[in-house]
Amino acid sequence: MEKLKQYINEKGIIINASLLKVDSFMNHQIDPVLMDEIGKEFAEHFKNHNITKIVTIESSGIAPAVFAGLHLNVPVVFARKGTSIILNNDIAQSAVYSYTKEHKYTVTIAKEYLNENDNILFIDDFLANGQSLLAIHKIVTDCNAKIAGAGIVIEKSFQAGVAHAEELGIEVYSLAKIKKLYANKIEFE
Fold first, then answer.
1. What average pLDDT does range 127-138 have in this prediction?
2. For the chain, which terminus, N or C, has the lower number of CB atoms within 10 Å?
């Protein structure tokens, strides 16, 4: 997706050889026009996958997931980071290690929102080491649903995430694939 690559080049900030900050349009401040185009792109790609729900993890995956849900006309379920007193005991959980926050947290989805009839599209802002994808796969499986694919806004193809998806048999559709981050340049595939 050329517009996304342009945003990444113009507004992304390279922190180091593995971290890219996209706060100005996706993670802190959200560009709704760009998110709408991202949602349309995911919807177009996955339109024949019989998606019944979209699943993401709070918070950075919510915007692209909601726009994809709008264009696919399906609900969006997000995994909460941590637990809440309003969630009952019928929940599915998995641990995730965040490399950007340098800590482990638990993501939770109430089982009432996913079931054996659901064909899930997982959407996330980044695919790097694949920890979020692995956690969602566990939760979806625990709810007897299945993952039809993963829509990734930015894939860091130089990290292990896509290999984890391949091991699980999950189709990954990434809108921008980063081959390498340099001090002042991003190399796309």
1. 96
2. C
